[in-house]
Design a protein that fits this description.
With about 150 residues, the chain is of the alpha+beta class. The two termini are about 35 Å apart.
Length: about 150
């Protein structure tokens, strides 16, 4: 009876849910616009908050651009946040893509595919009613440290 209890205790002690939360921030990426972090590391996982097509310098209004340009800006922002954690897009294991129009799938998918390489991250693609500041796409990712 002791072995299963010890194994269970060790399993819980090693789970990311019980790991420390380490703030990850990139001064090069757009600042958070609410009470959330750009990214959090817990154990070997880095959770990147939903990224919108905001210009880090605040000079370009991406809400006026097409979904391809917005997707590029979103993924570039994610790459900046991952870099702050010493990671790249190749370390992404899961992504959730939110769009306001599911018909944008081909354009978003084409831009997404130009950044990610096999084995591709697991992914969900979801249509939502509306995104902040008129954005057409938002992406959140989870990356894993080796």
């Amino acid at each position: 009876m002791r072995k299963p209890i010890l194994a269970l205790a060790l399993a819980f002690a090693c789970t990311p849910a019980l790991a420390d939360k380490i703030l990850i921030e990139s001064p090069a990426a757009p600042k958070a616009i609410g009470p959330y972090s750009q990214a959090i590391q817990s154990g070997k996982l880095v959770f990147v908050s939903g990224s919108l097509p905001f210009d880090p310098d605040g000079k370009i209004d991406y809400s006026q651009q097409d979904v391809t340009a917005q997707t590029k800006r979103v993924i570039d922002n994610i790459a900046l946040e991952l870099k702050a954690a010493n990671l790249t897009l190749d370390d992404v294991v899961s992504a959730t893509v939110y769009v306001t129009d599911v018909d944008d799938f081909p354009a978003v998918n084409k831009m997404y595919a130009s950044y990610f390489h096999p084995p591709y991250p697991a992914r969900a693609f979801v249509q939502v009613a509306k995104l902040l500041r008129g954005a057409k796409v938002e992406i959140s990712v989870i990356a894993a440290k080796k």
